[in-house]
Specification:
Elements: H1 16-32, H2 37-47, H3 59-64, H4 68-82
Helix pairs in contact: 1-2
Length: 83
């Protein structure tokens, strides 16, 4: 039988500034290498496959230090804050 209670998703949060700086670094590295940064970052977040992110300028290593749920939370938070 399914519970009607809402589960609470929690994790230890990395600083917002660190996430934004990492995303900017990754975005710039992907653009420099000729990739569409949006689709590549989405592919990484959905799959967890680091090969979606170029190793150019250390982008893959930097994004690998963050949890994908932290990236997604920051993206949603920023989007809603701007609405």
């Amino acid at each position: 039988m399914m519970s009607s209670d809402t589960q609470k998703f929690t994790f230890e949060r990395v600083g917002s500034l660190e996430i934004k700086q990492t995303l900017k670094l990754v975005y710039d590295a992907l653009r420099e290498k000729g990739y569409n940064p949006y689709t590549q970052i989405i592919g990484y977040i959905l799959s967890g496959d680091p090969t979606y992110i170029t190793s150019h300028n250390g982008a893959r290593a930097q994004i690998g230090k963050l949890e994908r749920d932290e990236l997604l939370e920051e993206l949603v938070r920023d989007y809603i804050d701007r609405a």
